[in-house]
Every structure is written in C-alpha cells, then in structure tokens.
C-alpha cells in the first residue's frame, strides 16, 4: 500500500502553478496567427521545474521540483512539441518508491531516511546546453544529464568523459556560438558548504583546455557568471550556506544584509594566481546579461537587486526581507586602478529579469538585450533594450498573461547583431494553456510574426538554448559575426 498522491493546498501549486506531471508529443502545433519564417529551422530546448510527487512539506519553493525538458522543433515551417522528465537519480528513486523522497530545497538532511546522504538531490531543472554535438539538462548542484536531442530521453549523468572533477556544474554555462568554446564552473565544488570554485574551458571538440580552482570568500551561491575575451567575472553576493543550520533542517542559503559583495575577475586562459579581486556594497543578483572589455576596463551588465533577489531565502535571524525590484545595472571594474572598488551605474529604470542577448555577442561589444518586464497587474511582457540609446520596447501578450524567458535566434548565421527572432513561451493564464510566440527581435512591439497554440500548459521554464538545424549533423553552431 502506498500513500495516495495529494498536493498541499498552497499558493505554489494553485492555478498556473498546479503541477503538470504530463509528458506530451504534439506533431504540428496549430498556427493561430501569422506565418513561421521559412529559414527558421532547428530546435528550442527549455527546461523548468515540475513536481513528480508532493513532498509533504509546505515550504517548497518554485525553483525546486523535478526537471522537465521541453522541445519546440522547427522544421519545414511546422513546429512539433515534445516534453519529457529529466530522469535523474532522484526522479528514478521516487518513481520506484511511488512517492517523494526528497525534502527541503538542497537540504539532504531533510530527505527520507531511506536516501543516503551521498545521493545527489539534482533535478536537471534549470537550463539546456548544447555543446560538441551533445545536449544536456543542467542544475547547479549536480553534474549535467545528457539528453537525446530528438526524443528527449535521458541518456545519463555526464562528467564530460571524466574531465569534470567537481561535484557539480553550473546551470549558466556560456557556449560561445562563434568559437564554439564552452565555459562553465562549479561552486561549492567539493560538496555542500565548501568554498571551492572550479572554472572550466572546453574546446569545440569537448576537450578541456583550461581549468582553474580557487576559493570564494565564504561558502556562497554563484548562480551565474559572465565572460569576456580575456576575463571571466564571478560575483559573490552574500547568499551563504551555514552547514550547521542546514543539518538542523534550515534553509540551504541565507541572505546576509550586512555583508559586502566580492567579485573575482579570473583570466579566461590564465591561472588562479592572476585572479583580481574587487569589493562593493551589499546587493544580490541572479542573472547576468553580458560582459565586455575595453582596454583595462571590464563591464558587467546584470539584473541588480539592492537587497535580496531570492526572497524565499531568509536572513540568519530568520527574517524574510522585503521584495526589491531588479534593475539592469552596469558594474565597471578598472584593472589599472589601485583600489578594489567598482563603479555602479543603472542602465534602465524599468524592473526587468531573465536577461538575454544575441548570444553570438556574449563577451563582445553589444547593443541589444532582451528581458522579461513585469506589469503592475501580474502580467508580463518581452522587452528589447537598445543599450546604445537606452530605448525599451515591450510586447505584452495580453491582460493577465505572462511570458517566459525569450530565446534569440539569428535570421541567418551571418546576420547583424539583433537581426533575428525571439522565441517566447506565453502563459495564457486564464485559458490554462500555452502559446509559443515568434517575435521579430528588431520590432517586438509589433507582436508575433507567428503564434503557435499548445493545447497544454508549459508550466514553468527557466532557461534554454537554440540549436540550429545544421548543428544536429555538425555538432557545431558555426555562427559568424559582422563587424560592429
Ligand atoms: Fe537562472
């Protein structure tokens, strides 16, 4: 006899948040508006959290839950949709037990007694990555899970042929689609509450070309980082793990409102002894838009919170800090200056999150950014920011409806920066189903050039990636840059 499945009556699992728990294959999504661009061929992969079984707890958070990968496959001006669970160790163990075995977010001390502490709690729920011909689902506290790019069947956990020696790999890797290098890292790289960072650079063939290990100032969270041609930027915001508190069943991270921010500039192809450290005011951020270098200056553009960006992680005294808005902000680090401070400049006065770019311009001078802009009524829209002029253009799908993170796709391998499409999953909240919108990235406010209807809900996706058609055979992106 196993327990009946019953989710708790909490806001997280109500309305749009109701666990979807459904795997689908839909051949030929219905086109309800416009026309699918003829040259748009390839696949959009997105990953998010769903819930396989109720945990029996009322303190679940939206970033937890088993990974669900979604594929929108563009071919011959039709789009197929497939979604599948990422079959992690956690997923398989729960499937066998027919119930939840894992407790509070990342807290292995709250798991079912049948689960050994050495079992990874990784869910593969945060993003999709394509590199050297392989597709992966990623979550920052585990190694990548390789996924079949056609069927989304889980192939298995991967340490990249033994090349990743850390216990985990970031869910915000940077795959440079021009050089085809993969840059990624692990934090708490030797296990829970360790201070180690392992930074990796892989060549286009998937072979490791550089690896740097160093320590952060405290056992913190490093959700994202940014790259330039010479330097890689690691911000350490004061979101920390106290292992004793975790062992008592507490939150895995605590926000320290009295602690400063530390930033490490790591030489992309150098060594740990060449790392440069900077220090700034208390703040947090989850997501970086881009970084660039100009002479001795390195600029980091990020969605910056003057407070706690993860307000479901309390302070050490248990306090839930007030929600603060994220503003697109530029931090400038001057490597020739003799102090360790940096400059902070707000770039946009409208709160925005889930920043993206034309990814061919990651780490390079750029002028186009994309993000989610939230309305006062709970709705949201897709924003296009021109970094040169400061102009913001927004497309909103409709009252009460919301958008998920946009994915830029170049119009052609050599089109100019920002000339292409934005693929945007849309939550038709009141209609309890999803759409996929294809926007002209240079004219988002005109609305979709194509709108595809799903008869199901894409409950939540965090991040994703685009794989162009030819990359399925070559394993490479092969995009070209035009001179800026
Ligand atoms: Fe993220």
UniProtKB/TrEMBL annotation:
GO MF: carotenoid dioxygenase activity; metal ion binding
InterPro entries tied to this protein: Carotenoid_Oase
Keywords tagged on the record: Dioxygenase, Iron, Metal-binding, Oxidoreductase
Necessary cofactors: Fe(2+)
Keyword flag Cell division: no
The keyword Metal-binding is assigned to this record: yes
Binding residue positions for Fe cation: 172, 223, 287, 463
Cofactor comment text: Binds 1 Fe(2+) ion per subunit.
Pfam families: RPE65
Gene Ontology process terms (BP): carotene catabolic process
Enzyme class: oxidoreductase
EC number: 1.13.11.-
Record-stated family: Belongs to the carotenoid oxygenase family.
UniProt-recorded name of the protein: Dioxygenase
Organism (species): Parasphingopyxis marina
């Amino acid at each position: 006899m196993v327990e009946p499945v019953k989710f708790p009556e909490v806001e997280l699992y109500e309305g749009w948040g109701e666990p979807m728990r459904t795997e689908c294959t839909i051949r030929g999504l219905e086109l309800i508006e416009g026309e699918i661009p003829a040259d748009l061929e390839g696949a959009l992969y997105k990953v998010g959290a769903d819930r396989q079984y109720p945990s029996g707890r009322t303190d679940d958070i939206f970033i937890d839950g088993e990974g669900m990968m979604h594929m929108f496959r563009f071919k011959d001006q039709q789009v197929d949709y497939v979604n599948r669970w990422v079959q992690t160790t956690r997923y398989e163990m729960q499937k066998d037990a027919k119930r939840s075995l894992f407790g509070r977010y990342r807290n292995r001390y709250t798991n079912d007694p049948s689960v050994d502490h050495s079992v990874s709690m990784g869910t593969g729920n945060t993003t999709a990555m394509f590199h050297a011909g392989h597709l992966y689902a990623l979550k920052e506290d585990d190694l990548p899970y390789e996924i079949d790019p056609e069927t989304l069947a889980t192939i298995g956990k991967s340490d990249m042929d033994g090349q990743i020696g850390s216990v985990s790999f970031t869910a915000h890797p940077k795959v440079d689609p021009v050089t085809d290098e993969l840059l990624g890292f692990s934090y708490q790289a030797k296990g829970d509450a360790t201070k180690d960072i392992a930074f990796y650079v892989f060549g286009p063939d998937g072979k490791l070309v550089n690896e740097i290990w160093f320590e952060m100032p405290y056992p913190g969270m490093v959700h994202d980082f940014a790259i330039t041609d010479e330097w890689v930027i690691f911000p350490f915001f004061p979101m920390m793990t106290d292992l004793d508190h975790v062992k008592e069943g507490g939150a895995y991270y605590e926000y320290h409102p009295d602690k400063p921010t530390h930033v490490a500039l790591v030489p992309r192809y150098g060594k740990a002894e060449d790392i440069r450290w900077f220090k700034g005011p208390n703040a947090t951020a989850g997501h970086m838009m881009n970084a660039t270098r100009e002479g001795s200056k390195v600029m980091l553009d990020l969605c910056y919170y003057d407070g706690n960006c993860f307000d479901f992680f309390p302070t050490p005294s248990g306090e839930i800090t007030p929600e603060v808005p994220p503003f697109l902000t530029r931090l400038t680090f001057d490597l020739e200056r003799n102090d360790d401070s940096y400059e902070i400049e707000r770039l946009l006065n409208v709160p925005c999150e889930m920043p993206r770019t034309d990814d061919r311009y990651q780490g390079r001078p750029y002028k186009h950014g994309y993000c989610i802009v939230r309305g006062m009524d709970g709705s949201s829209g897709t924003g296009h920011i021109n970094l040169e002029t400061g102009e913001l253009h927004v497309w909103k799908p409709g009252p009460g409806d919301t958008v998920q993170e946009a994915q830029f796709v170049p119009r052609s391998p050599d089109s100019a920066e920002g000339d292409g499409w934005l693929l945007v999953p849309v939550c038709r909240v009141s209609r309890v189903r999803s759409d996929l919108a294809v926007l002209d990235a240079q004219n988002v406010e005109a609305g979709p050039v194509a709108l595809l209807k799903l008869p199901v809900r894409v409950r939540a996706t965090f991040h994703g990636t685009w794989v162009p058609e030819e990359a399925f055979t070559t394993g490479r992106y092969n995009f070209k840059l035009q001179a800026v």
